[in-house]
Structure formats: structure tokens, C-alpha cells
């Protein structure tokens, strides 16, 4: 089981590794699309990378509703524990 902090750190690591985003720009409030300049193709790469790291897969429908880094963390927590 992954904690929220572990999921956030995995997500931050993926954003740094895949898209060369400076770690200090990646905060829970950061908007993926406007602040971090992630596009829909990048989002697919991010979903796949995080799935390989955590074993939890977000599908495209999950990603349609996320806007911030925290939204992704919450969506992944729900995949882990539907009661979260």
C-alpha cells in the first residue's frame, strides 16, 4: 500500500524524469496543463510511468477530471482504496 506522500513523490519523480520539470515547480496545487505544461500525450506517458511504479493504473477517463498534481494523487489513492 502506498501513502499519499509516496504517491506524490512517485508522481513528482515521474514529472522530473519524463518532462524535465524542476522539482520545486511540482506542488500539490500545480496545474498539470497550465503550470507544468503537460499536454494530453504527455498525460498518457505519465499514466503509464506511474502505473509501472505503483501498480495502479489510471485510465483516460480518470485523467479527464484531474487538473492539479493533488487531483492525480487523490485519483490514485481511490484506485488503491475505494473508500478513500
Name the helix and strand elements from N-terminus to C-terminus, one letter apiece. Answer: HHHH
Q: What's the mean pLDDT score? A: 86
Strand tally is: 0
Unreliable stretches (pLDDT < 50, length at least 5) are none
End-to-end distance, in Å?
A: 13 Å
Radius of gyration: 11 Å
The count of helical stretches stands at: 4
Derived from helix and strand composition plus strand pairing, the structural class reads mainly alpha
Q: What overall geometry do the principal axes of the alpha carbons give?
A: globular
Give the helix proportion (percent range): 55-70%
> Biggest β-sheet: count, sense, barrel?
none
> Into which percentage range does the β-strand content fall?
under 5%
Can you tell me about this structure?
With 84 residues, the protein is mostly helical. The chain contains four helices and no strands. It has helices at residues 4-19, 40-54, 60-65, 69-80. α1 packs across α2 and α1 (4-19) crosses α4. It is globular, with a radius of gyration of 11 Å. It starts with a helix and ends with a helix. The mean pLDDT is 86.
Write the SSE topology.
Layout: H1 4-19, H2 40-54, H3 60-65, H4 69-80
Helix pairs in contact: 1-2, 1-4
